[in-house]
Amino acid sequence: xxxxxxxxxxxxxxxxxxxxxxxxxxxxxxxxxxxxMALALARKERWDLILLDxxxxxxxxxxxxxxxxxxxxxxxxxxxxxHPEDQMALRLLKAGAAGYLTKDKAPEVLLIAxxxxxxxxxxxxxxxxxxTALYVISEAPELLHETLSDREYQVLRMxxxxxxxxxxGDALFLSARTVSTYRSRLLEKMNMKSNTELLxxxxxxxxxx
Length: 209
Description:
Layout: E1 2-6, H1 10-21, E2 28-32, H2 35-44, E3 49-52, H3 61-71, E4 77-81, H4 85-94, E5 99-102, H5 107-118, H6 126-138, H7 150-160, H8 165-172, H9 176-189, H10 195-204
Helix pairs in contact: 2-3, 7-9, 7-10, 8-9
């Protein structure tokens, strides 16, 4: 099989590649250092699986995943992230990820996850599966940030990380006016009035890197 690693940390990519090329059924391993490169390689070459990080320059993992789902709906994407499961996993699974794995897991767990998603199954940890089941059973209300669209959620995290409207627009290839519109919408949905409130909320719910 052919696997593409999309991650902006060279040392991590090198370690992951070394693990993968030792597997007898792995034909080749490609590397992408950012979201734009990941999309370019996904469009140019044939892959059986993409291992995708979340926080990357150019386009982040969520944007890359959304575009891949539109253009390569049958290509499985396994998220491999430093973000704890309770921050991003459910949103990414809903967006079409085949699974979610945190980077602190052992190589053996990664190989199990890869095998599972290549067989058309979803991979999530037992802890996340239990949390999801309990959430459904209890019919717990959504947290405020879970009511946001994917783009609104991106803007929330970027505002909370201290980026200006212009910086957000440049990063997401949006006009300042459009970013301001997203900011207004998310403030309304979350019943907040300022960036300070957004920052406090993001810190309390561990939404930042």
